[in-house]
Design brief:
By secondary structure, this protein is of the alpha/beta class. The chain has a single domain, classed as TIM Barrel, CATH 3.20.20. The chain contains 11 helices and 13 strands. An 8-stranded parallel beta barrel has the order 3-4-6-7-8-9-12-13, surrounded by 6 helices. The protein has a two-stranded antiparallel sheet with strand order 1-2. Helix 4 links the parallel strand 6 and strand 7. Helix 1 runs parallel beside helix 3 and helix 2 crosses helix 3. The chain is globular, with a radius of gyration of 21 Å. The protein starts with 5 loop residues before the first strand and ends with a helix. Bound molecules: flavin mononucleotide. The site of flavin mononucleotide has 23 residues, from strand 6 and helix 9.
Length: 327
Amino acid sequence: MADLKTTYMGLELKNPLIAASSRLTGDADGIKLCEDAGAGAAVMKSLFEEQIDYDSRSMMEQMELFSHTDAFDFISHSSKDYYIDSYLEAVEQAKQQVDIPVIASVNCRHDGTWIDYAHRFEAVGADALELNIFVVPADVMKSGAEIEQIYLNILKKVQQQVSIPIALKIGPHFSGMANFFSRLDEAQVDALVLFNRFYKTDIDVENLTTKAAGVLSVPEESSLPLQWIALMSDRLSCDLSATTGVHDGDAVIKHLLAGAKSVQICSAVMKHGYSVFQEMTTRLDQWMQDKGFDSVESFRGRLSRGSSEFSDIWERSQYMKAISGIS
Ligand SMILES: Cc1cc2nc3c(=O)[nH]c(=O)nc-3n(C[C@H](O)[C@H](O)[C@H](O)COP(=O)(O)O)c2cc1C
C-alpha cells in the first residue's frame, strides 16, 4: 500500500480526496458518510450571503414592519443568527463525529456584514474556511480591476477575523488570470480552489422559457482546471485544489501530476454513489505502486509547467499541435 497522505493548507489529510461543498456535506451525517467512504477531508455546504439577506427581507415584509428601523435591525440580526447558528451547530456536530478535517464554506460576493461572523466558524472548530466568491462580471460599469479588488477586499477582511487557513474557490472569468492569482498569493491566501462551476442556464425552444442546464459536471470539464493548475502550481506559494469534472482515479492522478495538493469531488458521487471515493483511492494507490512512487509528494507537480521538459506545452504549443494534427 502506497502512502497517500498529503497536506492541504497545513492540514493533514489521509489522502488528497476532498468531498466538495454540496448537499452531500450539508450536515454531520453526510460528512460522516464521506469519511466512511474514504474522503480525506470535507468542505461543508456553503452558507449563502443571499439566503440570509433574502430571509431577513421576507420576514420584514410578512410582519409589515419596514418603516420601523429598530425592528428591522432586530429581525434582520435574529434571522442572520438563526442561519449562522444552525450552520455553526452543523460544523460542531461534524467535528464531533468525524476525524477528517472539516472546512466551513461561505458563498459570498460582498465584503459585507457577514464577515463580522467569520470568527465564529473558527470558534466551533472548523479547520479552515473556504470562500466561494461569486461575482459575475456582467456589470458594464465595472472594470476587471474593480472586480478583482472585491476578491482581495473580502480576503483581507476575513483574514482579520480568523486565524484558520482560508481558501478562495473562484471561477475562470478573469482576463489576467496568472497576475490575479499572484496577487491573491501575495495577499497570503492559503489555497485557491480551481474552478468553481457555475449553474448554467439553457433555453427551451419549444416552450420559449429558460431552463437549468446540466447541474452535474462531465469528465471533459476537468481539462480547464488541469491546465491552470499545471500553469500555476510552481509559481504560487499557496496550495491549489482542483474542482470540476473529476470523475475517476485517473483524473485525480492527473491533477496531482499537474501540481494540485488536493482534488475535490461532487458530481461523481452524486452520479455513482459514495463508493467512488474508494475506487479513486484504490486506483491512486495501485498507480503509485506500479510507477514506484512511495508518497504523493514524490510525483506531485511532475508534469507542471515548472518541470523543464513540459515548460511550454501547457500554453500555445499544445494548441498548435492540436490544430495541425501533430500528436
Ligand atoms: C447540487 C450541488 C450543490 C452544490 N453546492 C455548493 C455549495 O453550496 N457551495 C460550493 O462552494 N459549491 C457547491 N457546489 C459545487 C461543487 O462543490 C463543485 O465545485 C462542482 O460541482 C464541481 O465539481 P464536480 O465536477 O465534482 O461536481 C454544488 C454542486 C452541486 C452539483
